[in-house]
Design a protein that fits this description.
single chain; alpha/beta; Rossmann fold; 2 domains; about 35% helix
Length: about 280
């Protein structure tokens, strides 16, 4: 099967569960804003069935796939080629065509860096503290190193997992909580604070002790539900500048669009963010 051609193309997200994914709303908004005749749907694909999903992509001529949990590692093993970030992370969140081949990419980390730039923050030369060592943290660490961050400190309860995440780049090392105070940018790459009302939050709902944060720092949270997490609220209380997690979601999707449509594609990230906010408001 060769790459699909013509108009009326289909892209999709695969995952399980996928019913609450914001991807359909975000991508449809971008296609509509650009006046492109593409459709985007969600397929609930059970764990262990990623190979079958890629076979269906080949058979049906699906033009692009977004990949979410639990399939990112399985798709990494199943595609024909990988981009550098996907290879380093052993994880794929985007599948595209190059002739007869399916190419696996990872846009999560690049989406985070783009969200920083969107807020006027340049991570090049910055000292960054990343809280967490899971898949999201790893993508952020890898992308920050590629973006030229000077020093990346990884903070995690499991020292072993922190070492594994830091091993992605010579620019990263394992640190301790007090290292947060010297960072220019602090990133919560864990799920701490997800679904928590700031008005009822306690210390367990915070990514770190807010007294470690201070004025002049940039504090970013990958959590986007709620958009204003308890940690971001407390960070602003001490004078830090805050960046919510929806930016990463939008910009990683925008990067997917440029992979599918071409690097010069005009992608309306403002329309994508509005669509995401509208969808969140309906839930």
């Amino acid at each position: 099967m060769r790459a699909p051609s013509g108009t009326g193309r289909l892209a999709a997200v695969i995952g399980s569960p996928v019913v609450h994914s914001l991807s359909p709303a975000i991508h449809r908004a971008a296609f509509a804003a650009a006046g492109i005749d593409w459709s985007y749907v969600a397929f609930d694909v059970p764990a262990g069935k990623a190979d079958e999903a890629l076979s269906a992509m080949r058979l049906l001529g699906i033009s692009g796939l977004s990949v979410t949990m639990p399939h990112k590692e399985a798709v990494f093993r199943a595609v024909d080629r990988l981009d550098p970030a996907a290879r380093a992370l052993a994880s794929v969140n985007t599948v595209s065509w190059d002739g007869d081949e399916l190419v696996g990419s990872s846009t999560d980390g690049a989406g985070f860096v783009a969200s920083l730039h969107d807020d006027g923050v340049d991570p090049a030369g910055a000292r960054v503290a990343v809280i967490g060592a899971g898949a999201a943290a790893r993508s952020v660490i890898d992308a920050l190193a590629r973006a030229g961050s000077l020093d990346i400190t990884v903070l995690n309860r499991s020292h072993e997992r922190a070492e594994q995440a830091a091993a992605l780049t010579p620019r990263a090392s394992v640190g301790i909580l007090s290292d947060i105070t010297r960072a220019d940018i602090v990133v919560n790459a864990t799920s701490v604070g997800m679904g928590v009302d700031p008005a009822t939050a306690n210390d367990r709902d915070l990514a770190c002790d807010p007294t470690l944060l201070h004025e002049g720092q940039v504090v970013a949270d990958l959590v986007y539900h709620p958009l204003d997490t308890p940690w971001l609220v407390r960070a602003r209380d001490v004078g830090a500048r805050t960046i919510d997690g929806l930016g990463m979601l939008v910009h990683q999707a925008a990067a997917q669009q440029r992979i599918w449509l071409g690097p010069d594609a005009v992608v309306d990230t403002a329309a994508m963010r509005r669509a995401a906010l509208d969808e969140l408001a309906r839930r």
